[in-house]
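Suppose a colleague, Dr. K., hands you the sequence of a protein chain of 670 amino acids and asks what its three-dimensional shape might be. Before reaching for any lab equipment, you can write down a predicted structure in token form. Begin with the sequence itself:
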Amino acid sequence: MTSPFIPTPSFDVLPTRLASWAIALCALVLWTPSFGQIEDPVSWEFSLVNSETEGLQDLVMHASVDPCWHIYSQDNDPNEGPVPTMFEWSFPEQVALQGEVKECDPIMEYDPNFMMDLKFFEEEVYWRQTLDLSQTQDGDSLKGYVLFMVCDASMCLPPEEIPFALSVTDISSARPDYCPPSQHLCPHAEGDHGAGDGETTGEEEKEEGLLWTFLLGFGLGLAALLTPCVFPMIPMTVSFFTKQSKTRAEGIRNALIYGAFIIFIYTGLGLALTAFFGVDVLNVISTDPFFNVFLFLLLLVFGASFLGAFEIQLPSSWANKADQASDRGGIVGIFFMAATLAIVSFSCTGPLVGSALAGAANGSFAAPTAVMLGFSSALALPFGLFSAFPGWLNSLPQSGGWLNSVKVVLGLLEIGFAFKFLSNADLVLQLGLLQRELFIAIWIAVSLAIAFYLFGWFTLPHDSKVERIGVFRFSLGMAFFMLGIYLFPGMWGAPVKLISGFPPPTFYSEWQGGGGGMAGGGHQGHVEARFDDYEEGLAAARAEGKPMLLDFTGWACVNCRKMEEQVWSDPEVAQLLTEEVVLVSLYVDDRTELPEEEHRLEQYGGKDFRIRTIGNKWSYLQASEFDRNAQPFYVMMDHDGDQIGGSAGYDPDAELFVDFLRDGLSSFVH
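The predicted structure, expressed as tokens, is then:
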């Protein structure tokens, strides 16, 4: 919940040298190997202060966060992404809670560890719970603990619990500045460099993201120009302005105004959607699996419409009224001419507008506006250009069957892109319905279908007969044919880097056991751990006469995935991992609850370890036995459970990992 009072922020800025030190520290943290020590980037202070409301007190939980790390808001969904900050109380019955825990406005940005937009805080943050302590006794105390998770740009530490205890009489007279302004010095996007090493800052990344969103809209706007509903309107509309205007200058001016109104109408749609639903709602639905299923179905409908199954049209009365209003003349008439174009062409532009808005649904207020600005700019561009240079109209190709061919190609592409949204939902829910092989097979089918259609090997009901194939059509068909051929090896585990990041990840595949679970070994250079339990792995190592390699990892660990994809895929590394050792992956952020009888409280480094989940169990094992808490972390064990050789962490150099493995193997005594 947002704090009801936020003091006026100070406009003092850090001295340049201090800011430089902070950025340099960020770079150092991101470059330093993650296995070198116990990471402890958050310190906590708990205090009791008088509330703004007379007679009440605030229990204040203050977190100070090291540079380049961030702690998550309590408002994130606990079932998706990281563990949100949570509080559990153990108060006397006389203590009355007043409302819920309040927090300041969080940063909301894309988090590469979880591949979704999340709310988090940097540097320092205050949470506060207002209490009524008027009925308590002097000897009463307030006890509880905070559960939180902290991440940087490349890794997350396991969830941690911090207990606290305060006397009800220990009330401070000074209230802290609850919402200090953040300096926002560290990058949040995936990467290994700090801002001082030329990496883009958060603001630059945001601007770059909006640029790509604008270009997405612009590209779809150009595609809309080549549809049967829009393309014939270009010469008609330009001729109208040039013939009805008294001078050429007036014709150009009216055409430019017409284009400006097109931009106004479509961009206004993006603004209206954001204003109506709100940024928070857009953020929630953009990461919600059920909303992604809705987008999947929506794009399937749009694709079917482009293929000629039916037409999506706005009520004809809207077009008639707009057309009548356009007869008024002047600027008002030009506006309604633009509105008429938007309504009449909706059967062609509607699916593309829907695709544009779907692609921009990332929870940002500016994204829907940017994509619609790009779309409408491309749509309005030819009206201004051809009005200024009417001779260019002669170079336009004649309307004909090729316009319907454009719609068919766009329809097939929309169907292909629809499955990306279904994949998003499937990955979140871990249903295993659309694993990597099936996704790639769908795109092979789409690519070949477009190629065969462009070659004229089949037609659809609304198509004209193809007498001959032009150079451009043949070249475009060959491009899609080559894409289909290129994707074929991806069915059997090839990386297909040309579309990297678009299909599901390599571990989410049928031949890897599906859904990212433990598979029975490697395949074509890709290695999966055989076990995800320490005792089971040790028993197998004893039975097979091999050492056990522990891989302390996490689902939300970018560098862990990099090691698996870039280092474990090396032929020599893959051979050693599958034939010479028993590989055991222990996920320190696994939230699966342990049986009640296995719950316990341990201590290490002066801190309590409350072990209630599988992740807690492996996190404590790593910290207590190896004095490490960052992932990835690799260590080899003999049959007595003792470490042999050294240890390793994140380093993309496969040769170094081979040296680490051979060092441990040379020390292993059967």
